[in-house]
Amino acid sequence: MKTKEIVFAALFAAFMAVLGMIPPIPLGFIPVPVTAQTLGVMLAGCFLGKRTAAVSLILFIILVALGLPILSGGRGGMAVLIGPSSGYIFSWPIAAFLIGYTVEKIWPKLRLWKLVTINILFGVLLVSLIGAPVMALVTHTSIWAALISSAVYLPGDIMKAIIAAAVAFQLKTISPIEEKAQ
């Protein structure tokens, strides 16, 4: 990796930590709160591209594992990474990679609606399809019940997908993907 890519990865890991300062919204009937950090996952993929986005989120997870309280609600440590939220957290580098991969492929013909669609597919649906079954395993509930209850995240996650797409689209000219495309 180039120095610039390492700096971008570190900056986005720090951005994820800043998003973690926004208090979570506990739902009561599901053990995983609503957080703003999935916005950072989608923005990383759209703005950084596959490799740097995945590295930034892997770095973020390493920092969480080391005990830094950078997850929403001031959570951190290994206990979080084996708890109900673990599937969602570990899906973040995968989602960012797939968002970045797809965005890089369509970069010359990039449109806002395409970014929104990519974010919904990988940043919303994929994260839920990985996170909900893991939450079900950890909480000893049925996978079907976990998938149904995780539908409560969809309206907020779709709003985050639109916001991330709009921000990334506006920053297209300064994106590291733009440099690679030229």
UniProtKB/TrEMBL annotation:
<dbReference type="Pfam" id="PF02632">
    <property type="entry name" value="BioY"/>
</dbReference>
<keyword id="KW-0812">Transmembrane</keyword>
<dbReference type="InterPro" id="IPR003784">
    <property type="entry name" value="BioY"/>
</dbReference>
<keyword id="KW-1003">Cell membrane</keyword>
<comment type="similarity">
    <text>Belongs to the BioY family.</text>
</comment>
<keyword id="KW-0813">Transport</keyword>
<feature type="transmembrane region" description="Helical">
    <location>
        <begin position="143"/>
        <end position="169"/>
    </location>
</feature>
<feature type="transmembrane region" description="Helical">
    <location>
        <begin position="78"/>
        <end position="103"/>
    </location>
</feature>
<feature type="transmembrane region" description="Helical">
    <location>
        <begin position="55"/>
        <end position="72"/>
    </location>
</feature>
<feature type="transmembrane region" description="Helical">
    <location>
        <begin position="115"/>
        <end position="137"/>
    </location>
</feature>
<protein>
    <recommendedName>
        <fullName>Biotin transporter</fullName>
    </recommendedName>
</protein>
<keyword id="KW-1133">Transmembrane helix</keyword>
<dbReference type="GO" id="GO:0005886">
    <property type="term" value="C:plasma membrane"/>
</dbReference>
<keyword id="KW-0472">Membrane</keyword>
<dbReference type="GO" id="GO:0015225">
    <property type="term" value="F:biotin transmembrane transporter activity"/>
</dbReference>
